[in-house]
Amino acid sequence: MESGRIADTSIAASTCISDDAYCSESARLNREVGGWVPLINDFAQWIQVDLMAVYRVTGVITQGRSDAPHWVTRFTVWTSREGKGKWTPVTESTCGEVKEIKIFTGNCDQSTHFTNRFSPPILARYILLAPVAWHAHIALRFELLGEGPFMLPDIAVH
């Protein structure tokens, strides 16, 4: 994302406080002004990236807002190959191998990079981050890690 290879139009968010330095296209890691800042702080906020093809996503690096002490401290990650409301949460096994939605650790300040690795890596076209805890106000800049694109075989359904 930081490189600009992902178009601004491929990054979408639930809401943002303005159309300039705080909307979805401002969520790129190391952006000097702003970051994604939603209009309100609640659990309905999200930001998603359309990679335009299926990639092997191995992790995410996050930062807070560049111009204010606001950042996400915990978040969930949801993935999809099709979009259109078909989202699968990244999960982790707990006692007895019960799968629960994984809560990822976010930042503890506005500028430090915090890296979360996905184990195993995720094959997805769409990646959605949903904040579940934050400092002062939801604010996020991030980068996806991975490789691709990959061509998946067509699976016939009979």
Give the topology.
Layout: E1 11-13, E2 47-63, E3 71-80, E4 88-89, E5 91-93, E6 99-101, E7 104-105, E8 114-135, E9 141-150
Antiparallel strand pairs: 1-2, 2-8, 2-9, 3-4, 3-7, 3-8, 5-6
CATH homolog superfamily: Galactose-binding domain-like
How many strands, which pairing sense, and closed or not: the largest β-sheet?
A: 7 strands, antiparallel
Q: Which class do the helix and strand fractions yield?
A: mainly beta
How many domains would you count in the coordinates? 1
Overall number of strands: 9
State the end-to-end distance: 39 Å
Mean pLDDT rating: 93
InterPro entries: FA58C, Galactose-bd-like_sf
Organism: Strongylocentrotus purpuratus
Protein name: F5/8 type C domain-containing protein
Pfam families: F5_F8_type_C (PF00754)
Describe this structure in words.
This protein has about 160 residues and is mostly beta strands. It has a single domain (about 10-150), classed as Jelly Rolls (Sandwich). It is about 0% helix and about 45% strand. The protein has strands spanning about 10-15, 45-65, 70-80, 90, 90-95, 100, 105, 115-135, 140-150. Strands 1, 2, 3, 4, 7, 8 and 9 form a 7-stranded antiparallel sheet that branches. It has a two-stranded antiparallel ribbon with strand order 5-6. β5 (about 90-95) and β6 (about 100) form a beta hairpin. The model has no long low-confidence stretch (mean pLDDT about 95).
Based on the model shown, name its key terms.
F5/8 type C domain-containing protein, FA58C, 9 strands, mainly beta, Galactose-bd-like_sf, seven-stranded antiparallel beta sheet, single chain, globular
